[in-house]
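FW: tagging you since you asked about this chain on Friday. Here's the raw sequence from the shared folder, copied in full. Didn't touch anything.
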Amino acid sequence: MTILPALIYLNSSVQGYVMPGIDHLPRFTWIAALAAAVALSACGQKAQAPQAQTPQVGVVTVKPERVSVTTDLPGRTSAFRIAEVRARVDGIIVKRDFTEGSDVRAGQRLYQIDPAPYRAALNSALATLTKAEANLQSNALLARRYKALISEKAVSQQEYDNAVAAQQQAQAEVAAGKAAVETARINLGYTDVTAPISGRIGKSLVTEGAYVQQNQATQLATIQQLDTIYVDVAQSSAEVLRLRRELTDGQLEKAGGQGAQVALLLEDGSQYADTGTLQFSDISVDTSTGTITLRATFPNKNLALLPGMFVHARVQEGVSQQAILVPQQGVTYDLKGQATALVVGAGQKVELRQLTISRALNNQWLVTSGLAAGDRVIVEGLQKIHPGVEVKAVAAETVGSAAATAQSAPGKTASPLSESTPAKL
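HL: got it, structure written out here
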């Protein structure tokens, strides 16, 4: 009943009735008092407002697990072996015996330099050698004859000594002639420019008719072996020190005796099919960048990797047997840059923990301090809670599935737990 109808009703009801003790008051005065009493009585009967429901949050229970610790490093590919084909004699290129961009075998002829001058030089050296050998034979016979006559005093000692010296000089000329023949033969062989290694040859830097020189070491082409390829990456010296410290302290174990395994992410974001092996790390730090070069080898039989490609190498640094991983959505940073997380502690109340984070592993943080096995980290419903609040903790996967079920039901909608508000009774 509202106040105005109540006043009308009271006015009509009390015209013939006088309340004891108030007959001396004007009628309108006590009628107003009765109306106020009725209004206060109606207000007292109003229902109390419902209290807010205990917030429900999604949690992830921390469980130590065995994980492989990796790090992503940028790098570039390079050929396993590179050979620059250069001219070793002077001359005119008369023939090219390969197709640019094709595979060549070690020892295969690539170019032919005009061999005529070198063939003539070889013939001249052979003739000089023949002459020297004939001279040696004559001097040897003379020295032998004088040796028999000197005992009979038929020749003087001086004549005998001259004959022996002539024989030795002829022997030296023969040796020099043989060396000249060998040199001429080598130079003639250099007119056939062959592949020093097997691999894929690039474009030709000269054409038929070009004059090449030995002194300038004219480059003709480049061959690269690509069936195996190098990936060179750079890691900061600070990270290398941290890794060594973790291995020494026992936080990490070596990945195995066969060398750390390396996965490769290509420029388009796809992952390379084959796994590589870490070969070595450089022994010095680059003073300009403060990094150390690491080198890994990858099989490349299909030639999917080409030298100079920009890639990301995922290097397996070690294995942590008792790693604590926390979803990234459960970790925030304060104004000082300190990593923090909210956990459900004793009495179902929210507690703030300060964390030390080592690195990111996919969509999780690797936590080295601040959490222990069994801690329940809040990952859903963070917007409506703060430290000290009592909450109702449920598994994060259960909360997600319940929300999905509500969304799929006809005529119902559901909002994420982090944005929902407590229902009113």
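FW: The longest strand covers residues 65-86.
HL: agreed, and The domain at 57-64+323-414 is CATH 2.40.420.20 (conserved putative lor/sdh protein from methanococcus maripaludis s2 fold).
FW: great, closing this out.
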